Amino acid sequence: MPVATKLKKTSNEIPTLVRVDPSQPGETQANIHTRWHPEIPCVATVPVGKPFRVECLDYSGSQVHNDDNADDIVHLDHDSDHHLSGPFSVPGSMPGDVLEIEILDVTPFPDHNWGYCVTAPGLGSLDDEDKETLVTKSIWDFYGNETSSRHVPHVAFQGRPHAGVIGTAPSKKLLEHWVKRESDLEVATAGKAGCSLPQPKGAYVGQDLDDELREKIYREGARTSPGREHGGNIDIGLATRGSRMYLPVYIPGASLSVGDTHFCQSDGEPTTAIEMAGIVTLRVNIIPQGVQQLCMKSPMYRTSPSEPIYRDRLCFTGLSVDKDGNQTNQSGLLAYRNAAFQAIEYLISFGYTREQAYILLSAAPIDSRVVATANRPNFVVSIGLPTEIFDFDILPRVNGITDDKKRVIQGPALPSVRVNGKVADGFNHEH
User: Fold this and answer.
1) Widest pairwise Cα distance in the chain
2) How far is residue 248's CA from residue 267's CA, in Å, rounded to a whole number?
3) Could you give the CA distance from residue 137 to residue 159 in angstroms, rounded to a whole number?
4) CA distance linking residue 139 with residue 31, whole number of Å
5) For residue 73, what is the enclosing H or E element?
6) pLDDT given at position 405
7) 412: pLDDT strictly greater than 80
8) Do strands 157-158 and 136-143 pair parallel, antiparallel, or not at all (unpaired)?
9) How many other C-beta atoms lie within 10 A of the C-beta of residue 350?
10) Which of 260, 263, 258 is nearest to 247 (CA)?
11) How far apart are CA 42 and CA 311, in angstroms?
C-alpha cells in the first residue's frame, strides 16, 4: 500500500503594519500623522518584495458620520487633513531610488461599509461666484464593489477603490523648496491661490516625540493638501487594485505613508471623491537610482487590468473661453470647468440639484480627457458621463427627452442645516 506524502504547509498570511479604529477621532490614535516632514519617526518596516496591509482612516479622521444631517460638514476641521498611516521605513532605499508600489487591494472595513461626499462653498474647483455651493453631505453604501446613495438617487456604479494619498517623505531641502514656492505664489496672487502653508494648528503625529521635535515638525511640516513631486495627495482614481505607483525616494528609508482612501472618484474630482476608511494591501520593490533611469520629475503610475470600464459615455466638451466670451491662452482648467458646467446643467435638466450633479461629477467613474492642446489659443477638454450608471435614459433623442426628466426630483433629500443663521437646504431644492 503506497504511503501518503505529507504536504508541507505554506503560509500566505499578510501582516498588518498599522491598525486604526475608523469610529474614533484620528488625533487620539497612534501611527497617524497629518503633515509631511523628514523627521517624523517611522512606525514599522516594510517587508520589501512581500505583501503587507495598512489600515487607514478617512481623510477627515472620523469627523463625518453616517446620518442625514450635514452639521458635521459645517464644523469640519480642514486644518488636520489628511490623517495618514505611517510612515514606513523601506530598508535599502536611498535618495535617487524609486519605489515601485503594487496596489494589490483596497477595501472598506467589513463593519464600516459606507463612505461620503461633500460640497461646500470654496471647497471644489467648480464654485461659481454667481451660484454659491451649499453645504451638503451624501452617504454612499457599498455592496461588494457596487455603490449607491440615498441622497443621489437613480444611480449605481462599480467602484475604483484607491488611496488618494500615497507618498514618500521630502528631504529637508525639498521641504524648504515647497514652502518657498507656495509662499511666493500666495504673495503673487494676493492669497487667491489658496495654498495651505505650514502651521501648527491641526498638525498631529501619533508617535511619542520629545517636545522640541514635536514643535519643530508642527511648525515646519508641509500641509498634505496638494500633490507634489513625492506623490502625496495626487488623487488618481485609476490607481485601483492591480495598478502600480512609482515614487521617488528623498531620504534614506523613504518614509512611505498612505491614506485618504476612496471607494470611487472621477477623473478630475472637482469636489470630493467617495471618502471612506479603508484597508490597503501593498507590495513594495526598489528600483536603484530609478529617478535618473526613468527620467522622473514627478510620480508615474501604471493602470490596472481590473479597472471597471463603462464604454458608453455621453461626452461634453469645454473650450478655454471665459463666461464673458473672452478668449484665454490655452487655459486647461477653464476648459475643464466649461465642460463640467455643461454636464451639470444637463443633469439638472433631469431634476438633479446642482449639488447632486456636482457630486456625480466627483464621485462616479467619469472619464475626463484632454482632447486637444495644439490648436492655439484654445485648449479642449471633455467629460464623459457613463450612461449605464443611471436607471433611466439620459441620452439625447431626436424625438425629444421623455418624462424621465421629472423622476429625480422625487428622490430623497438631505435635511436642513443652518450655517451662520442661514438655512443651507441640502439637496431639497425646488425646480
Assistant:
1) 91
2) 24
3) 19
4) 27
5) helix 71-74
6) 54
7) no
8) unpaired
9) 20
10) 258
11) 43
pTM value is 0.91
Tell me the pLDDT tens digit for each residue of 170-200. Answer: 999 999 999 999 999 999 999 888 888 999 9
Summarize pLDDT for 88-101 with one digit per residue, the tens.
999 999 999 999 99
Higher pLDDT, 68 or 279: 279
Q: In this structure, what are the phi and psi dihedrals at residue 180, rounded to the nearest 5 degrees?
A: -65, -50
**C-beta neighbour count of 163 within 10 angstroms:** 29
Outline where DSSP puts E strands in 151-277.
Answer: 157-158, 162-168, 227-228, 231-233, 244-248, 256-262
Gap between the Cα atoms of 167 and 101, Å rounded: 10
Q: How far apart are CA 32 and CA 285, in angstroms?
A: 23
pLDDT in tens, 320-339: 999 889 999 989 999 999 99
pLDDT digits (tens, 9 = 90+) for 395-411: 998 876 555 555 555 44
Q: Beta strand pairing status for 44-45 and 84-89?
A: parallel
CA-CA-CA-CA dihedral for 371, 167, 92, 161, to nearest 10:
-70
